[in-house]
Amino acid sequence: MHMRKEKRYFIIPNDKKMNEYNSDSFILPLKDFSVGFDIYFDIDEINKLSSIYSVSVIINRFIHEKDLDIIKKELLKLNNIEYFFVEDFSLMNYIPKEKIVLYPNHIISNYYSVNYLKELGFNNLTVSNELTVDELIEVKENSDSNLFYTLISKNNLMYSKRELLTNYYDNYNINNRKNRIIVNEEISNHELIIKEEEKATTIFNNKIFCANKYLDKLSGYNFIVNLSNIDNESKRIIIDNLNNSDLYNLIDSDYYFLENKIVYKVGDLK
Questions:
Q1: Distance CA 99, CA 164 (A)
Q2: Spatial separation of the C-alpha atoms in residues 88 and 138, rounded to whole Å
Q3: Quick check: pTM over 0.85?
Q4: What's the Cα-to-Cα distance from 102 to each of 16, 92, 169, 252, rounded to whole Å?
Q5: Measuring CA to CA, which residue among 222, 219, 18, 3 is closest to residue 125?
Q6: What is the pLDDT of residue 5?
């Protein structure tokens, strides 16, 4: 097993009352270039907070070619940023590799990917939280990269650049419109959050993914706690119990992925 620094918690807040979080490490969604969060921070807000806290920035919108010059100029205005969590690989051209944390949903799921990306110069990676505990241990033990893992969140199931709720309302001539709804998916009987923002729609599982049951097995990972779409009562319980392995019993949680291997290829079905 490779030696790594002690784990850290990086908080993605769901409000701007930073002193509520008992943390000094934050990931702040950049306004106009992030999607699926409760709040967004502009350049001035981020720079002010980065003078007080350890601040990283997340940019998880897909970037169009016409937006590249804009984001390049915005990035130059940011000061004292620890990491940039990015989903769109085009941003690799504008941010030093040592500052980039690759943050693609669902993609980094084995140590082969981790080690290959390190060969390309990317040492900071967010591993999918759709892996079992055994798979997460395997990744950790067979790589020496700086690994991040989303310990707590309402998991993002889908992101589209289309305004899907608006299209639905238009198609069925519905006047009572909301940009955030909860629906029941009949096959799995799971509640899903559908959330529309400007030129984007995201879908989340309404249960809170919580991996605290296996905290002792996940040493070596830096933990991300994404509080977006989580109610204030659950948020307070989470913040007060970050190191509590029983946290999953205190909130409406789900940890299915940790105990059930996900089949990615038809040939793997038994």
A1: 34
A2: 26
A3: yes
A4: 25, 9, 35, 29
A5: 222
A6: 53
